[in-house]
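Table S2 (continued). Query chain:
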Amino acid sequence: MWHATCRALLALALCCAPVVRADQTVRVAIVGGPVLAGVWPRLVERAQQATHLHISTVMAAPKDGVVPAFARGDADLLLIHGSDEAFFLAGHGLSGPLRPWALNGFAIVGPHDDPAGVRQATDGTDAMRRIAAADAPLLAFRDPGSFTIAQRLWKRAGIRPGARQQWPDESAKPQQVLVTAAQQGAYAIVGYIPVRFGRIPDAGLDVLLHGDPLMQRMYVILEPGPRHPASRVQRQRAARLAQYLVSAAGQAALVQADQDAGGPWLHPLSQTPDLYPSGE
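Corresponding output:
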């Protein structure tokens, strides 16, 4: 269902896209969230108009799919979260330096009766303090993004989580994390886009808090590195698109595409949270 939805949104972008020259194609692989939310197809329309490139989204999938595709040379540009996989691509010479592009948010999901009072929390840090004070269970989701967000909030709260706030995620598949949380009456931190669009079934749990800038992760753009099989022309086109996406015009187009998709789903670089305020 998730892959079918992504394909339908990409088809919509292609049928509505402006006429551009096919010999100016740049092939893009991207993780599924921006496509699932409808932001990427709308941004593609604007980017094609601005760059006169034909943007072919050759793959929209989890990183386990898009990273090998880029490394093989099936794509000229890769958009994923900043992660070990991204650093290893750069380290092996398969990509150039990581370029920050956009952010996506995470949410705290939990039981409808919300015994810790997360609904009343002012932000993610306050929510974690409430969970710890109530000694409520929090599932330690195996997803690196969720783990990073949780550790960031614990650190900001100045709290060392107890055993019940580090319950193991024993789900057979990562997408079943909230099924496990529901069975245990636990809270969990998950990506806001996947849970809102059903990629992660909510299992009857509620989204209790989202929108905290500290609960965001960075998407990055990777262009071909020296060991990537892309040709000189493909590299030039990839660089042209990458430069547009991070430019002021490209960031404004991202904001507009996000609004048209019913967001906020993705956030521009101007909304990057300050993780290291003065005096800390």
